[in-house]
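Posting this for the archive.
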Amino acid sequence: MKVMVKYTFSDYIKCLEQAGLLLEADTAGREAMGILGLTYNSKAVTEGTLFICKGAAFKEDYLKEAVQRGAAAYVSEKKYDVNIPCILVSDIRKAMPYLADLYFCRPWEDLKLTGITGTKGKTTTVYYIKAIIDDYMAATGGRESAELSSSDVYDGVVKSISHITTPECVELMEHFRHAVDSDIEYLEMEVSSQGLKYDRVDGILFDVGIFLNISEDHISPIEHPDFDDYLESKLRLFSQCKTACVNLSTDYVERVMAAAKNAPRLLTFGTDASADLRAYRIRKVGTDTVFNVVCDRFDQEFVLEMPGLFNVENALAAIAAAYALDIPVQYMVSGLKRARAKGRMELYHSKDNKIAVIVDFAHNKLSFEKLFASAMEEYKGRRIISIFGCPGQKAFVRRQGMGTVAGKYSDKVYIVPDDPGNEPFEKIAGEIAQYVREQDCPYEIMEDRAEAIKKAILEVNEPTVLLIAGKGNETTQKCGNVYVPYLSDMVYAKKYIEEYDRVHGEA
């Protein structure tokens, strides 16, 4: 295991020179000084820190604050009028991973890393892989695995909720270092298209890289200009993994497979007869989903207690990862049976069984299609009411996709806030409503998400499945530039189901 060592200013200059990114170094005769910290946040600077000047909105005042706080030197694409040494580079984003890799002493080399990309299912797949590995570690005396997802972070030191899918490279390397220093052997993480496009995972070699699926999402002026850029960004994962795992059911499978063949090893999974790990006999047994998987090592039955027929694909991805990591099949079975992904397919039923509420994180067209298909299959003949919104200032294509799918399959839609940020909720809701209307579906726009959940539940008078989508177990709502406390869809669903039960129990 590599331990943290402190490198000199000269070491960072050499690192960037070898990477072909160095333009100029003004050392002021301080080549031998030790670098004691690395950050791009001026408020986090301490004595001896190498400060990174990054971002389109970077202001010289940030650098001046860093100097006041004790920055030893800075790295930038341009020179500033401050009295500390500097390194000038041609591309600060490409330079950052090299700096972080050196500062934290390449911690990823001491971890067995699994990276998951896809439009839908990344978080659930992280939970599934974690459950499998943790069962294996418990049986063999190892440490619980680390995880980095859009919901949770655990690295052996930090345990917290998350607001971002793939952290910036400095934070990412710090998480890796925490895991290594905590004697953790395995780490599973979501790898977003943004993380790949903007070089956050550059230089890292994943043991396993998983491609789940692809559909239009994250296309906006601040994300991806078009679908091709979105797909190509995701495909970059295959140039950074030892084993590529591909879902043969994904759209654009030919392009995905062509890219995946660049990895040293390729595993495929799905229901297709040609899949290396093939699922068959997928069925419901009570509330459980049961399926079999056959490959060259086993022919095994698996049980998912977590609802949603579509989760078989996510479970297959986890099985493929465990297969690639040489984890025995019994831990795949036990891990998947007990696995739960918080805020995903959370079920609440009224006592009279008239209402089934599903709280799920579904937040794009593909996840909506899977969610509605699963609800219609598992709750045949029931009315469907959906409650959802779309985030502000990004992924504008979701408004059309989610509005169209919800309008097509719902008997009524409630359009509510979902992290509107600095974009007026009325504008977001109006754009969603346009596509709901095109499907001749009645809808209501409500500015209070909790009140919409209450109204939808308490007004039920016939067998209904209520889909509350987009936020899962999240406990904040982004309004303006701040995150406002929100009790979560799960809390409100439970609260108003209990209120419904009281009212109808007394009737």
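Residues 122-140 form the longest helix (19 residues). The longest strand covers residues 277-285.
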